[in-house]
């Protein structure tokens, strides 16, 4: 369904159920009233078709159960063996921390920190924080610090990359089959189940419902409107970019905070265009050494050669591993290039005040925001290969310096996408239209 004004006599939901609320579309900036949604219903923006909110049957209860299950599975993944490889009577095994520890031992502490954070620290902190929030919200008087904890959970969400790590493990397993004998440990099966549970959790979780429950419990201000009421849109509305609460714009100049989550309040992301340009240019610079220097070196019986990203794809094609070659090419070459091209295109259109393809550009931004993390597949694959294949002169795999530059490209493009505000595209087009109308000659 699309968001629209409520009828004059809307049905009254139960006192503890969802309420009508104003939302600003963070894709185009249109304010619209979203009525209470039943399970399975979706409210979309009338202007750009972006999803504003989804209805769930029991987002708090289901979320707590799934978060608890995911925490248990993450413990299994972190403590048990993921893969075992052997050759010439020697065997090695690796767990979730094996890759970061091997990278740290080889002096690649930057990669070790990124891999360890995105595969263990961020998922654990996200799940533990979310479970704490959902359980404490069941108390009669939850602590007000839950607002800060849930803000941290939302910030960690894009940096938890368990599902990307699973794909990297699959690529590593496929590449190892021709080099050594390989066995799958219980942690890899648990990783597959964990990916499924976290995907289910993401589909069931409703951040707006959690913020509303905080208001209902007195954790966050202001109190919820009465069930069935038709809230009025403030005269000069502004929405929080963290929790989405629509509120009157502060009258005084200076630092203002959201009434509900206490985050810094801005009409648009501060310096969004300048920051996005700077991060895009930095990523573009890092992309040159990422493709020039080797990302992986395979030494077999004392002989071998370094391999770049493109060289790895060529090797997979030569081995007739067509699906895997396509996967690595898409994640490691096509996605970074398309992300940088799309971001710079949107930035240029915004600065030029272009009015064409606004809806399409907004959808493009959503795609760019979602696909960037999948380029980490190559980094995870290299960390696992480096941890598993260490058999002296028989066969050894070492990550190369190009992997550090490529990891920087992925992080910088993700930060650039997060920094850009797509509402600026609509603002710029509207401002250009007003200037054009003002420049038109008056009728005689």
TrEMBL record:
It is found in: Cell inner membrane. Keywords: Cell inner membrane, Cell membrane, Membrane, Transmembrane, Transmembrane helix. Its main location: membrane. InterPro entries: PqiA-like, PqiA-PqiB_transport. It holds the Pfam family PqiA. One of its GO terms (cellular component) is plasma membrane. This is Paraquat-inducible protein A. The lineage of its organism: Bacteria, Pseudomonadati, Pseudomonadota, Alphaproteobacteria, Acetobacterales.
């Amino acid at each position: 369904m699309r968001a629209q004004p409520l009828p004059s006599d809307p049905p009254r939901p139960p006192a503890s159920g969802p309420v009508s609320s104003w939302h600003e579309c963070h894709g185009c900036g249109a304010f619209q009233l979203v009525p209470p949604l039943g399970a399975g219903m979706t409210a979309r923006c009338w202007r750009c078709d972006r999803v504003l909110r989804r209805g769930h049957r029991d987002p708090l209860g289901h979320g707590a159960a799934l978060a608890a299950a995911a925490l248990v599975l993450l413990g299994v993944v972190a403590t048990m063996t993921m893969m075992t490889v052997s050759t010439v009577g020697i065997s090695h095994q690796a767990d979730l921390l094996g890759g970061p520890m091997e990278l740290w031992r080889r002096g690649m502490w930057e990669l070790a920190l990124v891999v360890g954070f995105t595969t263990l620290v961020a998922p654990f902190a996200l799940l533990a924080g979310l479970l704490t929030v959902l359980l404490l919200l069941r108390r009669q008087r939850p602590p007000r610090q839950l607002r800060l904890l849930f803000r941290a959970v939302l910030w960690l969400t894009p940096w938890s990359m368990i599902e990307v790590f699973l794909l990297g493990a699959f690529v590593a397993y496929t590449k190892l089959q021709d080099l050594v004998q390989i066995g799958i440990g219980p942690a890899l099966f648990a990783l597959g189940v964990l990916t499924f549970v976290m995907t289910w959790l993401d589909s069931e979780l409703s951040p707006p419902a959690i913020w509303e429950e905080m208001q209902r419990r007195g954790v966050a201000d202001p109190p919820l409107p009465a069930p069935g009421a038709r809230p009025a849109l403030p005269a000069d509305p502004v929405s929080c970019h963290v929790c989405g609460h629509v509120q009157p714009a502060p009258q005084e100049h200076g630092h203002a905070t959201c009434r509900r989550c206490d985050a810094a309040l801005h009409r648009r992301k501060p310096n969004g265009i300048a920051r996005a340009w700077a991060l895009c240019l930095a990523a573009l610079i890092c992309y040159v050494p990422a493709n020039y220097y080797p990302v992986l070196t395979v030494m077999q019986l004392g002989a071998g050669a370094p391999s770049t990203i493109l060289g790895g794809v060529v090797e997979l094609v030569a081995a007739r591993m067509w699906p895997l070659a396509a996967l690595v090419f898409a994640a490691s070459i096509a996605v970074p290039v398309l992300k940088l091209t799309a971001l710079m295109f949107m930035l240029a259109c915004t600065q030029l005040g272009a009015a064409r393809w606004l809806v399409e550009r907004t959808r493009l931004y959503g795609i760019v925001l979602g696909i960037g993390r999948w380029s980490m597949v190559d980094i995870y694959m290299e960390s696992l290969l480096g941890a598993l294949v260490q058999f002296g002169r028989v066969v050894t795999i070492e990550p190369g310096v190009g992997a550090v530059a490529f990891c920087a490209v992925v992080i910088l493009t993700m930060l650039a996408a997060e920094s850009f505000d797509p509402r600026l595209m609509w603002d710029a087009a509207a401002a250009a239209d007003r200037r054009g109308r003002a420049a038109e000659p008056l009728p005689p």
